[in-house]
Amino acid sequence: VKHFTTLNDLSNEEIYHLIEKALQYKHGEINNNFHEHYAINCFFEDSTRTHKSFEMAERKLGMQVMDFQPSTSSIRKGESLYDTIMTLQSIGVDLIVIRHSQEDFYKKLISSPNLTSSIINGGDGAGQHPSQSLLDLMTIYEEFGTFKDLKIAVAGDLSHSRVAKSNVQILNRLGAEVFYTGPKEWLDPSFGIYGEYAKIDELARKVDVMMLLRVQHERHIEKDKIFSKEEYLEKYGLTIERENTMKKSAIIMHPAPVNRGVEIASQLVESKRSRIFTQMKNGVYARMAIIDSVIN
Ligand code: CP
Hints:
The protein is α/β, with parallel strands linked by helices. The chain contains eleven helices and nine strands.
């Protein structure tokens, strides 16, 4: 593929191929040196993991990595995203990772006949976060060796999460049994197509994967501000009591950053069944596989 903007357009076979490639990078079974390629990471929204793990992936692949700060760029003089990308392409950048608050920002760019650089979506508003989805899939596959018949719950701030939407759709397509839970006020009707709603107490007891979502305070408008931290954890979060009821083999996932004490009891972040830091580590290898697939 020339660009990587959504997982929805990829076949199951292509998704498995990316997961296998990411695992091969993790195990040192493949080694590539793309030293003739120039990469730039344009993050118009805040990020620690996605930004820095793309940079780590690019450096591990031997690429030349350039810095870009929106706050000191000509975006501040009114230059458009399109003209910014064309500028970077003109000076010789061939891989551009973009995170932007505008949903589907990449559609205009990749439909332009003038674009020759590769675009990777590092997150588009409340739309998609395909590199996060891939590292989540990689982490589940690495743990269980399959998606088929796994019971997977996605829990929390569903309507604001760009991770949840693509994950439920793809996990369902790969054969997992998907469940969702969270406050009724933050549900998105589209989840019903791919999974079944259940209360978190019931899901804690039966799932193989409890995938928690961050409460996205920054995207909440006044009507969404309906819980205190403590109320949210008690009603909808993973408390110690709920974790105690989980199956022995079950794992906890969270894309992070984590609101400790809101969607998850703080001690559980580093608990034995938490794969939160494994997800971050896998993110580097998943992103190496993505970069490899767009520039090779
Ligand atoms: N999971 C994730 O996207 O984290 P960042 O916002 O820090 O990149």
